[in-house]
Design brief:
about 120 residues, mainly beta, Lipocalin, about 5% helix, Lipid/polyisoprenoid-bd_YceI, Protein yceI
Length: about 120
């Protein structure tokens, strides 16, 4: 789960616009969720993670190209693994208004998993 009010593009005015009703409408859709349904190991630490993304009140299947970046023990006795992933989202697929010349956003994810 991602709190959409926390989205950060490293530009305060752009962030305000992204969160507004003109774009993702974080006031109405305050959460985005992703539930994985399939993971394919492509070798050499690369994975395709397929699942359902809910954004702007719309759920669509997407695939995230991910790469393993490392693993280790944390100070509390747990095991953690880190991944970086990317995917391209077509705005119209999530009923987000297209403004300007770009009909998509590229999303980069930094994920840390804790072994249970």
């Amino acid at each position: 789960m991602v709190d959409t009010t926390s989205l950060d593009s490293n530009h305060a005015e752009r962030d305000k616009h992204i969160r507004s009703g003109d774009f993702i409408d974080a006031g109405k859709y305050s959460e985005a969720t992703f539930k994985s349904t399939k993971v394919v190991d492509k070798g050499n630490g690369k994975l395709d993670v397929t699942g359902d993304l809910t954004l702007h009140g719309v759920t669509k299947p997407i695939t995230i190209e991910a790469e393993f970046v490392g693993a280790g023990n944390d100070p509390w006795g747990g095991e953690r693994a880190g991944f970086i992933g990317q995917t391209r989202l077509e705005l119209a697929d999530f009923e987000i208004p297209v403004m300007g010349s770009s009909s998509y956003v590229d999303m980069e994810l930094h994920i840390e998993g804790i072994k249970k």
